[in-house]
């Protein structure tokens, strides 16, 4: 049951036309920094601010959020605040079930913040926020069945189906990175083995490159040189940079990761049949060096190929601010499947 | 664009309350038989009829459909006809994209039949029809996020999300059986290797049992005896019967298949987070001998276990008539995501 509302308009889902007026603040809580911005109804960021992530203690995070909102709202009339963070939020957007960066557990974070901020607050998963932004303003605009993938250290995922975020029965849908595609394969931090994100993420790219370097393969010399012999310093970003500079080994490593990406996308297409996949996240800095092999592997592994239209695979358009933009917009329009039902 | 309507009411989606009145005929076109029935608004079958499947030629199948509808509608006032068949129908329920039992390809089958029958006709995938029936009248009643799996020779799948069948962008969602869970694994008739249905279906059970029998393993003697030495005659159904009679080897084989089933369901839960899985199809005759190991493997492989509510795994309630009942009901209420938008 919702708690009684106070000094701000009641939370209810937007009508068939999304509410178009008003500014919102979006806040993206990451592992190292908290980014915030004033976002208008067309998805433009009017002003930005950021802080270092203050640790995961509820009071500290609340304090930073309040500071950021105070700073950003001095010159703007803000109707609502959307907060995106890695982890699982409940379906209503009120409490944190689990998050690596937020120590709230089943506490009414939204209500706490609404009391402090005297504004409508929405709490959402960062991948959901990014997907919403891409659907509203980015590479997924107009797509009735959109699946978004964020390739960072792991794989984030979200779906916008029929103009609503589909978050599942308990709000934890979209964990595509934890589909097991190699039983008995690499250990995943989720506790399983063989999860997709162990094969198609920035972490996977770094791990493969380090393994190659440790084997002291002659083809790994550019990699080893780039980190002056400190093999543990080889990350996905290092490989991506070398690949863009033309290093054939780094390109092969990206190709391997791209193939796993395409295979996992084919699995998602079998289940979900989206019209478009939007692929974002840091690993996408590799651009076509990643997406071209992914598209080929997707086409090769799509079940029913030749008898069905195939989904497009597009690079995300909004970059690292997608989460902030999406959180702000969601707080305004509130279109999540399940809400308001 | 829809073609102009004729002597029957216009097709439009039901309002928030499903239309409750009227009888519909459901027709399930299978590989060997065509089953039809008059279905009321509570999902009860009032009368049934069936014919042998007449081959896949459009005119022959049309003739059988017309015969069945004529026979069944003599004593009942029928408002609509729903037809379920294996394969892919377009999103509007008007044409067959691909079907093993129907040779129509991009022809307006629905319009042909509406002309012949002078009734509203809906064409749908058999797994979608069965899922809809289980959601409306069976083991999935009241579930806001339902995923259905039909275990037969392969794996059929469908989703009912927020009271609508979710069929994807092009109408071919739900092919869960073709998620690749073992790259380089068993060849699948879809053209790939390692699809889930090669590990968790009636066919998979039969193949594993035949392999064991061919190896002439001492543990396979009951299996070999049951088919009087004709190893090729060992099917999933044979194994299931022996398992129910207590044969330890057949139980082990079912357990293996159940474990693959649970692992694939855990993958679907990661992506879709349903509240309930309903599992039906012939292989479910094995009951708990299959579902108990499936539930254990699901619990063991669910990503985020311990931090999230887990979906229930339930056996389908409506049996082999689910497809017929669902096709009839869908033709009446027409609640498919995408339709009417």
From TrEMBL, chains A, B:
Magnesium listed as a keyword: no
Q: Which InterPro entries match?
A: ATPase_NBD, ROK, ROK_cs, ROK_glcA
Task: Tell me which Gene3D superfamilies the record gives.
Answer: 3.30.420.40
This protein's UniProt keywords: ATP-binding, Kinase, Nucleotide-binding, Transferase
GO MF, one example = glucokinase activity
This enzyme's EC code(s): 2.7.1.2
Family according to the record: Belongs to the ROK (NagC/XylR) family.
The name this protein carries in UniProt is Glucokinase
